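Hi,

I'm pasting everything inline rather than attaching a file, because the server keeps stripping attachments. The sequence lines come first, and each chain or strand is labelled.
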Amino acid sequence: MKDKGFVVSVGPHIQSKNSVTHVIYGFVIALLPVIAAGIYFFKMKAVEIVVTAVVSAILFDALFQKMICKKVDLMSGHALLMGLLFAAIMPISVPWWAVAVGVFVGLLVGEYVYGGFGNNPFHPVLVGWAVLKLSYPSYLSMASSVLGVLKLEGISAIVEDYSYFSEAYGVGDWSTLGGKLKLLIKVLLGWKPGAWGDYLFGCVGCICALAILVGAVFLFIKRYINWYAPIGFLGTVLLFSLIFYNGDRQYLYPFILIQIFSGSTLLAAFFFVTDFVTTPFTPLGMFIFGAMAGLVTMLGRLWGKWVDPVWFAILVANAFTPLIDRFTRPKPFGRVKSSV
Amino acid sequence: MKTGTIKGGIALGIERVGTAIEDLPVPSKLIIPLKQHQGAACKAKVKKGQEVKIGDVLGEGGEDTAPIHAPVSGKVVEIVKRFPDLKGGYIPAVGIESDGKEEWAVEAVDKDPLSFSKDQILQAIQNNGIVDYGIDAVPLAAKFNFAQMKGVTTLIVNGVDVEPGVGVCLRLLAEKRQEIAGGIKIIKKILGVNTVYLVVENISLQAQGTIEGAIRGVAEVAVVPPKYPIGLAKFLVKAVTGKEVPSPNGVPEDVGVCVVGLETVVNVWECLRTNRPPVDKIVTVFGAVNTPKNLRVRIGTPLKDVLSHCGVSGEIGKVVVGGPMMGLAQYTLDIPVTKEIDAIFVQRESDLAVISDQKCINCGWCVKVCPMRLLPHIIASYCEVGMFNEAEAYNLSYCVECGCCAYVCPAKIPLVHWIKFGKSQIKREEQ
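And the predicted assembly:
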């Protein structure tokens, strides 16, 4: 045993085992079922998008790190996560080169011009998405997804389609409790308006609500995300669909199901609204952020021209993050008036 | 039974060392620093070569310092002017070689401490050099005088070890119930208060029951969750009474509460009963030692004797006195056990905390755990780039340096380091 020469430093002398790399790989693992469901539903088209997104993300990430003279670190998992998230929000109508363009612009304009991971005010994946949406609107059109059909033909058309086709499977009437549960399960597994085996359209990562929930449960168990932002977001979506639904009352239940489980609502609630870098850091701030994103989403869905403005809504809320942080500063312990 | 908790903090999940308190053999040579609490150092009252007995005064200071007594009988072999202090810097110290006779300077008596008058008790506490034990030890008599001046109405006896893993209070609650009850009675008499809470952690229901029986009619048991840093005085007051001690410079006495440690209470009783000064300190030794133990150590025993008693295998990288979260890392094992040391935490080189220069990713985990409800990542970022006034605008000075933020930080940013740096720079600017 030596007598002298021990390490001296300030406390704490112990640390939690969680590191940024752990958290990033946690998100990657949580995304795996989501991506797997996308590949199950869309087969080779989804594989093409995922591979393009991941490969281009890793390549461009390395390139940009080299350009800003940082040590090129591909093991951090950051590029992998960005690629997977990007693939998850791409509709299957998008060509592979557009995916690469989106990843490139997203990483460059969304992240590296600000100095890299940790400094970006907007979510880089969503910046890439916004550029594609504005540059190639026809490839990213969501008009034939469930939400698109809802917008064009109304809820009654969808439900009638469902009843018509599902009778063949013995589902029958959905007005009973059992029927409602069956409808819920069908929506969770990836609902489409037409017959089973008929054409199916949606985003790679948004088609199967159940897979997203599985990923989210993993993140909650690992405590990488908390409930404040998802509750704010989903709560606002639910509230708006309850209050401002103006169709036939009997179709309210399927309407709410579609608003929450179809489209990108769930993916946004657990993977984008809970992002660390671009969202507020106080619990109240996270809730407000989620509510704000939900508000813009529902404004767009109910009265706007866009079919699914979730990503746009999050970008808008990202812009408000510094403001929210400023107004939700907690009151320090034991502050007395005279010391203000 | 009262319960309470605080916002923030973390459940670290480190089990407290629960072994029975064991006496450590007195080593042949002891070194006693002449400063064992906050404030000025004592002046040496002995000369080199002088024979001393246990309880002889080694050093004395003014009104606000507690005298220091010889913990062992033997010969003064050296008076060191510059001995390393555990908080950094140098202090005078007295080296004593033990003669192994264990002779006391004062005869043991068995009195009823409750028969003393208030002034007699305070005088005895001052003369016997009792401090409020812990890393921020203060002379107890001065503390009680201040509390009386402030007119406190509530006494909180802190039966919670602040640091994770430390089992001093846990063992005292199990082994010294009568002494605790007696000590509380004495302190009640001094302060003239009727509301007394003994705060314990809710880790063992059986222990709670027995302690409640032992102090029935003397104090009320208040139960808090095992959550770091609830054992700090500020947070105990909040958890038990709901009052917030004013920050950044307030003390519990400002809201009418006096917080006293459990070991202090026990020592007050023992000292008044026997009329002998306390010369032992109970410390928990844990971490990378072969057998973690709770030890009754003679004050002045160098750390190397304590560690070799517990057995250390392999290379140790860090020796921390006080505990893993707020403890002070020491560079040498010559440092002796003093009234300030509650625990000794040993780490292997492979277990050392790492730091990185990664950018903050704004996850907000530090905000969630901060018991002072600050924004540690913003304060630390400002300190890192030298913007201390901006850091102060985010209440830098409120920080109690508990280390919860740096513990949870996934980016491994040394938040406490930056905050301490900022505080020291602001102090320097003011001078």
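Residues 44-67 of chain A form the longest helix (24 residues).

If the labels don't parse on your end, tell me and I'll reformat.
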